[in-house]
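Methods — Computational structure assignment.
A single polypeptide chain was analysed. Its primary sequence is given first, followed by the predicted tertiary structure written as structure tokens.
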Amino acid sequence: MLKTVIDYPIFEHFTQNQPPQIPVGSVEENEYWNSFWRFLKEGSNVALVNLSDQQNIFLNHLTTGRKGTTLKIVEKFKKPHKCKFPKDQNIQTVFFLDEKSESDQKKYRTQNGFLFGFGNDYPEVWRRLSLQGKDKVIPVRKNAEKRLESWNRLSDYILPFTDMIIVDNYMFDETLWDYNLFKLIKEFAGKARVKFNLMLVSFSRDGFGPGFESKIKQKLSDLNIACNVSIVIAPSSIKEHDRGVFTNYLRLKSGDSFVYFDKNGKLITKGTEIDFYSMAEPDKFNASREALKNIKHIVTEVSNRKDKANRVFGNIVNKLIS
């Protein structure tokens, strides 16, 4: 489950502004409020901070029926020095803080790779996290309506992140990687606020030579992408068949390789759709956790092979599998 740190004043404002039920209240308002309430009650491990002694009936409801999630009451939120969290902070934490200073709000968002909501925008931040109002499945068929026409469309879905893993057995096709792999990474990097850990997991029968790592790093450097990159090349016996992109709060899953476009932007994939999973949904979080366990197994197995010099490149550091 995601971890949520929420200031009591934010919680109080949220509960005091429950919209009237349909048909008096709008469908959108009720969907927003009910989804956020379900998330706080049974979809996240919550730390409620800066609790006052005011009575709130919703606080009593928050403590019961949590379906395996935890609720921790913290008397006072420990504000990190200069708004920058330490390196051991859980990377799948979302913060809803009653921070009044616009300067400190900016510091939180620019100095950390985490998702923050404040009193002036937490409803919109929740909508972004939960993908409310967005298509969670986008077709990639050539003749489909509202199909994915370029990697630029991903920008509406991408949230801040610290760690990223791409799994695809065909992403290293050098004739097409400029239009797919590196376009994809560039879209995500545009939303990164800190230097991030990037792991690329793929397949090759024999691995790659010593110049392969430097070629990838040069490509990333040319695109001004600041990341710590590592590459793991699995043999056929343990390769991952599913294609996916994993970050702190979002998972992308493709029915085919992410090699979608040719140099002219024409669709060449044989896939049918791309799915977007919010980690705010417990079932999607749990499914992603299982997928990441298998990726961790692949990384461990390949790292222990005799031919690892041709299969493991860079320093393997990624908190999504640590």
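Note: The first helix runs from residue 8 to 16.
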